Backbone:
């Protein structure tokens, strides 16, 4: 408005997900008026991350090293391999803290209509990894969406002849959720996947 | 988690206002996985803004020039001077689009308990500006908070002996608001400031 450069800053902040015009304006004013140290650090960190962040050779997660900290951790169980569709899913599983195996990151899910086939999401890299590592169980943690389910089924079929077990994470009623507000598909899954207690 | 640099990026994104751990993570992954061009542009723009954005010599708003685009616009009414407490307020007034005069930006409001006196918010710069410009009316658009009202009263008292009119923006019921949900203080203001129609 009164400064072209400030307008440019507001515009470039809008590339961040979930940031609209008002938030971008608030962020730009905050960075320039109140926290120039934070702004300088942010700019430097983004530049450094752009230069140095690549993919881990094993799990394909973002990392600045050849093999990420998680894959090179000797305390993790090498016999378990969890397959996820996005880095955010990997973060969520790690934050839950109950899984101690390895990961493999697909770049998305199969979606033939968008031209995304097995090569695009990294299936061949997955097979190479399985050939070279002592994996005994593959856990399919793809999203419970149509594409996620299709990808999980495809991988399960592909691994049928190998000597390893393949499992899918359980679908059901979320812990703390109320049955009344759970959708029909989830309830059907919860009934089909019921566990015998006695 | 699996990358120190990615953690640093998430941490530095948290300096933005309104960005918590989950949003910062989402932003970092988005910038690195999906929009490296946008990330590079953002980093460059922040650096450039840090180097070049200073204060307008007249209104003290953020600008990369000596005098901002608004102050150097010959179509604006030089006889009106609107005093605001923050750049965001100035943006809001400009976006409303009904005001065509000049601005002066105070750096906050008077708050003696926090050690913020007239010198800290730029009162002397305001007086210098009034001496050098053909201002006929000063419009006090400080926030309707305790500090904002105190600042407005202080400035009004300071300008009492000058040959210019001083006004305060109207307080009352917001347009589109319902009386039922308007607080008592605002309603009192709306009654005290009522306009005679006939």
Residues:
């Amino acid at each position: 408005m009164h400064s072209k450069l400030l307008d440019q800053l507001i515009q470039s902040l809008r590339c961040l997900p979930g940031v609209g015009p008002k938030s971008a304006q608030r962020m730009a004013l905050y960075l320039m008026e109140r926290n120039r140290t934070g702004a300088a650090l942010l700019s430097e960190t983004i530049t450094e991350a752009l230069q140095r962040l690549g993919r881990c050779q094993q799990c394909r997660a973002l990392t600045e090293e050849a093999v990420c900290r998680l894959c090179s951790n000797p305390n993790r169980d090498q016999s378990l391999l969890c397959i996820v569709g996005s880095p955010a899913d990997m973060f969520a599983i790690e934050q839950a803290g109950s899984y101690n195996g390895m990961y493999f990151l697909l770049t998305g899910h199969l979606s033939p209509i968008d031209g995304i086939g097995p090569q695009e999401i990294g299936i061949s890299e997955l097979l190479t990894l399985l050939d070279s590592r002592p994996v005994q169980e593959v856990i399919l943690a793809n999203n419970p969406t149509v594409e996620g389910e299709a990808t999980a089924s495809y991988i399960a079929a592909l691994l049928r002849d190998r000597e390893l077990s393949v499992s899918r994470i359980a679908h059901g009623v979320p812990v703390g959720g109320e049955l009344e507000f759970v959708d029909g598909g989830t309830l059907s899954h919860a009934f089909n996947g019921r566990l015998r207690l006695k």
In short: The longest strand of chain A covers residues 77-84. Chain A has eight helices and six strands. Chain A has a mean pLDDT of 90.
